[in-house]
Amino acid sequence: MNLKDLKNELETLKSEDNVDHRFHKTEKGSYAEDRISIGITTKDQIRISKKYWTLNLNELEELLNSKISDYKSIALRTLVEKYKRTNLKKEIYELYIRNTKQINGWDLVDISAWKIVGNWLIDKDKSRLYKLAVSSDLWERRIAIVSTYAFIREGRIEDTLKIAAILLNDKHDLIHKAVGWMLREVGKKNQEMLDEFLMKHVKQMPRTMLRYAIEKFEETKRQHYLKK
Predict the structure, then answer these.
(1) What letter would DSSP give residue 155?
(2) CB neighbours of residue 76 within 10 Å
(3) C-alpha distances out from residue 101 to 69, 72, 115, Å
(4) Which are the contacts of 186, defined by CB distance < 8 A and separation ≥ 6?
(5) In terms of C-beta distances under 8 Å and separation of at least 24 residues, what long-range contacts does 111-115 make, across chains too?
(6) 169 burial class (0-12, 13-18, 19+ CB within 10 angstroms)?
(7) pLDDT (tens digit, 0 to 9) for every residue of the chain, 228 residues total?
(8) Is the pTM of this model over 0.90?
(9) Residue 63 contacts residue 10 (beta carbons within 8 Å)
(10) Three-class SS of residue 200?
């Protein structure tokens, strides 16, 4: 099986009826203005990624550089699958990092960043994430914070909180949501550390970020923070 086989199979699966514009801002001037989708369902994307995981990295990089978001998603899902199954972890991480400009959607970041970048960096120098966190590129900043989910799952909280602090004044709601999501996950592992972070930064946090972070709190405690 090769990249041509994959694309031929996708041609048989595409459907305009499956294209859903509700979850991305595609109006002129918005972050997803140029997003192109051909309607490959998530179920089919997952199946295809498992079927074609043996594609080589050059083929997957070519697929990732497509303008079609479905192709990008399948490329990333396949890279995740290949990352799990092979010893090419470093090469896959490096491919990901040199193509961050192509991972240009919140969904693309969320299905892949923590599974590749975060997983690779768990026991390594994390300076790359801090560089991404101060990038002018929206998606690189989201990659920085979402990648830390891999650390949180291992009970390693500090880098999430440090990067969250860097992103407190970010202007984009997609960063507010991502940081709030990661803070919520921190709370599942260490409520005390989350409370400490919130008490220090609650007045500075965008409301969307705060609401995401405290979503699972009992109502009295949630209202306490919302009234700060």
Answers:
(1) T
(2) 29
(3) 13, 11, 18
(4) 152, 157, 160, 161, 193, 194, 197
(5) 111/73, 111/76, 111/77, 111/80, 112/76, 112/77, 112/79, 112/80, 113/142, 113/143, 113/146, 113/147, 113/149, 114/146, 114/147, 114/148, 114/149, 114/150, 115/80, 115/83, 115/150
(6) exposed
(7) 899 999 999 999 988 766 665 555 555 555 545 678 888 999 999 999 999 999 999 999 999 999 999 999 999 999 999 999 999 999 999 999 999 999 999 999 999 999 999 999 999 999 999 999 999 999 999 999 999 999 999 999 999 999 999 999 999 999 999 999 999 999 999 999 999 999 999 999 999 999 999 999 999 999 999 987
(8) yes
(9) no
(10) helix
Tokens of 127: 């300076």
Would you state the structure tokens that stand for residue 138, as one six-digit string?
Answer: 């929206």
Q: For the range 198-202, what are the long-range contacts, defined as Cβ-Cβ under 8 Å and sequence gap of 24 or more?
A: 198/225, 201/165, 201/168, 202/228
Give the CB-side neighbour count of residue 216, counting CA atoms within 13 A.
14
Q: Categorise residue 68: left if φ over 0, alpha if ψ from -120 to 50, beta otherwise.
A: beta
Closest CA relative to residue 69, chosen from 96, 106, 95: 106
How far apart (Å, rounded) are the C-alpha atoms in residues 152 and 170?
A: 22
Whole-angstrom distance, CA of residue 99 vs CA of residue 23: 23
